[in-house]
Amino acid sequence: MQKGRKRIRLLPRLRRPSLEAGWKFFRQWMRSPREMSALSPSSRELAHKMTHELLKSTRRVIELGGGTGVFTRALLALGIEPPDLLVLELNQTLSVHLKQAFPDVVVECADAIDLERIAADSGWLAGGNADAVICGLGLLAMTPANQRSVLTAAFAVLAPNGRFILFTYGPANPIAREVMLDLNLGARRGGFTLKNLPPATVYVLTRNRSKRVQPQTRAR
Ligand SMILES: C[S@@+](CC[C@H](N)C(=O)[O-])C[C@H]1O[C@@H](n2cnc3c(N)ncnc32)[C@H](O)[C@@H]1O
Prior knowledge:
Distance between the termini: 88 Å
CATH architecture: 3-Layer(aba) Sandwich
Largest sheet: 7 strands, mixed
Shape: globular
Strand content: 15-25%
Number of domains: 1
Bound molecules: S-adenosylmethionine
CATH topology: Rossmann fold
Radius of gyration: 19 Å
CATH superfamily: Vaccinia Virus protein VP39
Mean pLDDT: 89
CATH class: Alpha Beta
Low-confidence stretches: 1-16
């Protein structure tokens, strides 16, 4: 009886916002499925697997493709200060949603490819480089050229030991091999969760410490 009463009181507070957010996300997916690249927002379990890859010392974070704010919420819950969090979201409706839901977070309606300029122009970069980029973009569906542009922009604003944390619905790192080689990046497989639609795996990209050696042809 007690339990029943408690559930009735908690339901509207706990469930309604995520249902509303899910519906908002789905409507945007119907308008531009390629850009959204998922039918529904990521699960809290995936958000946990993503934020688990942050170093304890992490202070400043950039989120790409904020959607309805599942990762944003998880980052704030971990103690990232709202002004230390910059979120880029290309979809106008979702960026307005994010601004309303997280008024102290720096939210910009912009393309991830323009991250370097946006971070500078918004004044966010004046507070220092990012310790991590949390990527919510559908990287698997991008061309290698677009992947390269996003990663080049991200690593331009990341601190030297900064990490780029992404998730994929595929079986491997979604970044094209040539892009990894050209940008001298290394990938580590992180967590995996079945509790996401579809199940997802996390990868962490970092700069390789050693310089890339160019193959040389011997003079004859
Ligand atoms: C797969 S959804 C992920 C949303 C959210 N992070 C989550 O996990 O629920 C991808 C999001 O990236 C946004 N997006 C797609 N291309 C983008 C781009 N080039 N720059 C910024 N955001 C983009 C979409 O509008 C969408 O909200």
